[in-house]
Every structure is written in structure tokens, then in C-alpha cells.
User: Fold this.
Amino acid sequence: MADAGNVFDVVILGGGSGGYACAFRAADLGMNVVLIEKGELGGTCLHRGCIPTKALLHAAEVADLAREGASFGVQTQFTGIDMAGVNSYKDGVVGGLYKGLQGVVKARKITFVAGEGVLSAPNQVTVNGEVYTGRNVVLATGSVPKSLPGLNIDGQRIISSDHALRLDRVPASVVVLGGGVIGCEFASVWKSFGADVTIIEALPHLVPLEDENNSKLLERAFRRRGIKFELGNRFSGVETVALASGETGVRVSTANGKTFDAELLLVAVGRGPVSANLGYEQAGVVVDRGYVKVNEYCQTSAPGVYAVGDLIPTLQLAHVGFAEGILVAEHIAGLDPRPIDYDGVPRVTYSHPEVASCGVTETVAKERYGADHVKTLNYNLAGNGKSKILKTQGEVKLVQIVGVPGEDDRVVGVHIVADRAGELVAEAQLIYNWDATPGDVAQFVHAHPTQGEALGEAHMALAGKPLHVHD
Ligand SMILES: Cc1cc2nc3c(=O)[nH]c(=O)nc-3n(C[C@H](O)[C@H](O)[C@H](O)COP(=O)(O)OP(=O)(O)OC[C@H]3O[C@@H](n4cnc5c(N)ncnc54)[C@H](O)[C@@H]3O)c2cc1C
Assistant:
């Protein structure tokens, strides 16, 4: 029998982005909520993901600026990285946000339970022998770094992103296995910190989920920065070796017979859902290759049980977790929320330069609407004053559909590469999600000189009234 004091409107298992966003919205909607977390409130994003990596990337930007001061006429000198100082800055940012988040949980009167929970029945979670019963249960147990068969992450020479964020030194050399977002962000940081970096990626391009144009621009920029990469080449093995420096390191082999020696191997081949041994299947929740299966309202196959965030097979992004958590809280409250259009979720790789996009790639647009109905425009940032001032290069690429029966000639994809592109994607997201046509955007006046102007001018060009471009 459940203790009457442990009965809630919503029981949430996992206090990461998905779980806590659901808790906050549900509490705002008047529900009594329990949030159960075995580690630290805030989960991967706050402690091992978004926030600490972006702090490292900012430190990396400062290092680059210190090196390049003379090119702006400013006398600066780069004399090295003090990793203890970098970590203290990073941990300070995380610590401040962690404190704030704990304050929000208290302010919203959410019951926080520290401990590891299991789904003991469709409407019950058991933590340390205590049963929490809910009218609804939300599974939000997130994800952890994955590896490849036979590749043992030892935390010493072969590390995951979790270890990489706790390094107390700058490695002399690193092989990064995986050229996705996480791999490219660490490669970018370590290069700026002075390491020799090689990325190995099995697919033909870096950031392979992006529009190919974005991938190629990033590859060009990384090549210029001296970040090496092996594309379309599979990992085949790793062994411990003595490096030329006398230090112990790793020798990574690839399917085409090449080898790469380095002090460290970062395994960044993706993240797997946390769903094993948590009672999910026994409670009637269908799990497919570790991911909990859900419908467009994040409802699982078990009545009253929802799942959100990295645990379900949608984009593994913190803001997707937030959106799914909010959607679930509103669905439970009977507010009839709109399902999420996952194409309309902005995606950013915060490397130097940044890669940002919203909507679909040219390839997907052609598959979906037919090649004859897809028009693209590439706007080179060489013509953008603010980008020139910042000494950043790149492009804004627009993907538009034309003449599709029953559809406006709207922009279905915006793809950007440049330093600070991550900030530009906010406008791209409005353009996509409000079904804007190039003409709609072309009439908006953008401030000069801003990088945002590049978005405006790209739409002006696509609408047939270009400003700072010529053929
Ligand atoms: C290096 C790195 C960089 C990233 N950068 C970005 C970025 O810049 N932008 C972005 O949008 N996303 C980024 N992400 C992804 C983002 O962190 C995740 O998408 C997000 O954290 C997922 O949220 P979640 O709530 O689903 O899972 P998580 O944040 O993993 O939270 C799940 C929580 O559940 C808890 N838990 C698990 N099992 C139990 C149990 N049995 N009982 C109790 N508690 C349990 C865990 O301790 C954890 O705190 C990054 C990820 C990594 C690894």
C-alpha cells in the first residue's frame, strides 16, 4: 500500500533538462510534483554537457583572441593555458546555475527526492524502499556516453566527454573518434588550447547530420586551423604504445590500415539511453534498442506513463528535453498542446566557427518535395560588414520550396556557418516556424552592421532584390 503522503499528480524519474522542465511546468499548472534524481539536479546538460563545454569553448575563444591580438592592432600575447584556472571558471559557471536551479525547485514547491528510482508499477516509482505513486509518471532518465564493441573507455588514455570535462591538463595530442557535434566541439577547444588534434569519422563528412554545405565549410575552416580529420574511415582498434615523447599513449588503427598516435583517445560516437534494469518493460513500457517508444505527446505504451529527453528517439538536445517536458506537463493538465515539429528545432555546434541550422537540409527537401520544387541560395559572409570586423568567414544557405501544391513558397531550411552563428539561429527558427517566404523576411529592416543582416540580405536576394551581392 502506498503511503498517502507519497501520492502525487506527477512522479518524475530523472532531474535533467527533460525531467526538471516537466516538473516546473506541472507545478506552475497547479499539480503536486515529485522529482527523483540519483545524481545532481540539472543532469547531463548542466554538469557534463552543454554548459561546461560552452565554458571551455569560450576559454578557447579567449586563447585565440590572445594569439591574434596583433591582427587587430592590440598587443596581446598567448603564453599558455592554466587548466586549473579554466576549470575553476567552468565550475563557477556550473555551480552558479546549479544553485539557481535548486532555488527554482524550492520556489515552485516541488518535492525533490535524492536517490535511484525504479518503475515498480506503471504508476509507481520506488526509491530506497519508499514508494511514490502518481496519477502520471514521467520517465526522464536521459543518456550516457556510448562506445564501440571491444573499445573499452578506461578513463585514463581512452576517455569519454565526461572525463574530457574533468581533465587537469591540456593533452599534447588527441585523436577524437566521431566527427559529430561533441567530437567537433572538443576538437575545436583542444586545438585552441594548443593540442595536436585528429578527428576520425566513419561517414563522409564532419557534422554529418547537417546540410552538406555546412559540413564542407566547417571542414575548410578546421583544415585552415590545422585540425586534421579522416573522413569515411572506420575505427578498427586501439593499443597502448610508448610515444616518441617517451610518454605512454594510444595507437588508433582504422579500417583502411592507417594508424594515429596520440596521448589521448576521446570516444565521441554518440550517447545511449538509460533504460536498462529500471522496470520499464515489466511495467508495460515498450523499449526499442534501449529507447522508450512514444507517440507525438510523449506517451508510452503504458497508460499514464510518459517519457521525454534523451531517453526517447528524438534529437538529443537540452532544448528538445525542455520542450518535451513542457509538452507532457500541458498534456497531463488537459491543455491540448501542439506536438513538437522536430524539423523546427534549432541545432548548433559551438565550435570555431559555429555551425547552426533550423529546418531541413537541401537533400531532405528534395526527397520530400521533389528536386524541381527546391530552390537554394548561398550568401557569402564576405559581404557582411560585421563578419569582416570579427574576421569570421562562412555562409548563410537558404532552402526554399517553390510551386508545391497547397504550400506557400516558404523557406524550409536555414543553414549557417560563422563565429556566433548560434545566436543567428534564433531568427532562422522564427523564419522556419512561422512559414515565412523570402518576401516576408526581405521587408524586415535589419540593424547595420550585424551578422543578422546576412540573414536579411540572403532573403532579399532570394526574393529577387539583392543588396550587397553581385553575380
Ligand atoms: C558533451 C556534451 C555537450 C552537449 N552540449 C549540448 C548543447 O550545447 N546544447 C544542447 O541542447 N544539448 C547539448 N548536449 C545534450 C544535452 O546535454 C542532453 O540532450 C540533455 O541533457 C538531455 O536531458 P535529459 O533530461 O533527457 O537527460 P539527462 O540530462 O541525462 O538527465 C537524466 C537524469 O536522470 C538521472 N537518472 C538516471 N537514472 C535514474 C534513476 N534510476 N533514478 C534517478 N535518477 C536517474 C540522471 O542522474 C540524470 O541526472 C550535450 C551533451 C553532451 C554530453
